[in-house]
Design brief:
The protein has 5 helices and 6 strands; from the N terminus they run βαβαβαβαββα. Helix 1 (about 25-40) crosses helix 5 (about 150-155). By secondary structure, it is an alpha/beta fold. It is globular. The two termini are about 30 Å apart. Helix 2 links the parallel strand 2 and strand 3. It has helices at about 25-40, 55-65, 85-90, 105-115, 150-155, and strands spanning about 1-5, 45-50, 70-75, 95-100, 130-135, 140-150.
């Protein structure tokens, strides 16, 4: 399996009275992530399955990934919390993308590579970053085959 772990694009800052889960992407975040998608497309990336958090900023990021999607897109609250065996059980197909939030996306990458969640600081992911893992989708059984900061993918997509 190729597992694409994606941190959502830039969202509006917290505003008093606005629930965190309703924060949308900024116009700039939307434009920048569209270029990231073009970069992924230039690298011939396609997804059989796209799972995303129910938070609005992750949903909007997932929607921007639509040109890369060959299969289904599904929402799961498992991507709005610490990674779990339940999330791993949802993974199916050859090319799966996950759109979520920090610190959980970095924790997931560390867990899948090393079985050690505490190494998540090693993989601090900027908004719009993509980590590409390959192998058996089990903790400690995958290997990192790509780590794309958003600037690199935007450059590829220009």
């Amino acid at each position: 399996m190729n597992l694409y772990v994606i941190r959502h694009a830039s969202a509006v800052d917290s505003i008093a009275g606005m629930p965190d889960e309703l924060r949308p992407l900024t116009d700039e975040g939307r434009d920048e992530f569209a270029r990231i998608v073009r970069g992924l497309r230039a690298l011939d990336v396609r997804f059989d399955l796209l799972l995303h958090s129910p938070m609005l900023r992750a949903l909007e990021t997932a929607e921007l990934c639509a040109p890369l999607l060959l299969g289904e897109s599904e929402v799961t609250p498992m991507l709005a919390q610490a990674p779990s065996g339940e999330l791993i059980a949802m993974l199916r197909g050859n090319n799966v993308a996950l759109v979520g939030h920090e610190p959980w996306v970095s924790e997931l990458v560390a867990w899948m590579l090393t079985e050690n969640r505490e190494l998540s600081n090693t993989f601090g992911m900027k908004k719009g970053a993509v980590a590409v893992l390959e192998g058996e989708p089990k903790p400690g059984q995958m290997r990192l085959v790509g780590f794309y900061p958003p600037n690199a993918l935007r450059e590829i997509g220009s």
